[in-house]
Description:
The protein is of the alpha+beta class. The protein has 11 helices and 10 strands. About 40% of the residues lie in helices and about 15% in strands. The mean pLDDT is about 90.
Amino acid sequence: MAQTYEINLVDLCEKFRSEDCCRAYLEKLRWPEGVECPRCGCKTVSRIHDRDQFDCDSCRYQFSVTAGTIMQDTKLPLWKWFLAVYMIVESKKGISANQLKRTLGVTYKTAWYLCHRIRKALEGQHSYLDGVIEMDSTFIGGRSPGKQGNKDNKAMITGAVERGGDVRISVQGEGGGESVKRLRSFIEAHIAEGAMLYTDEAPAYKSATGNRSRETVEHKLNKWVRGDVNTNGIEGVWSLFKRSVIGSYHKVSIKHLQAYLDEFEFRFNNRDNAFIFRDAMKHLVSAENVEYKDLVA
């Protein structure tokens, strides 16, 4: 049975065809129980209709629905924000800033900044993974001169996926291999103590898993499955992300790699969520702004 989604592209264009429609939607998401002052929390506010703002009756702070959010002080029409969010969360392999530039009719700088602000909003705190967890590391980056498999010009990322559930991915650094310290830090941050880990035979796992149970598959001996033990799920995650890099982004810098992973993680973890657009917009109205100068510093 096909899944019914909350909104499609046609609905988006019809529902959010004006700034007033967009502001009303953001207001409902941000303050479901009524508008309140972001400075003092007072719920007694007056509307300034001709300026699309509110005036707090207590502290006299004047604010808009985007004040203090990732969209604060934006000069871009809100409907373009909505369209960008929709395209990012609904594109299985992501969408490049160049594609958004062409679709929205903006400059590349504007599209690039818009993408990174949305990625920043989509990052968040997560609960621990539990049950059967597949874990692996891979390398992202360009080729280096020298022998095949040289990893000096690549960034290592580590990921864990709960069978039938969510994924957690983190950049571990440039070059080199899996270290006990890196793996232990990742495991302690994302995986419950009672979980069962399925990994390859990398020796670093022996000291990094703590009291968690662990089963292995011997990839070096070309053994990929041992009964129920395999890492095919996390390998599929790597395949999908690398196709995003190759097909959509073409290349990513290690400086911003975690931001791309956060976007991918949100999209993957909401792959069966019929309300993925609404939930993404909730992130936007609760996330603090990030300035362009900080992104390029």
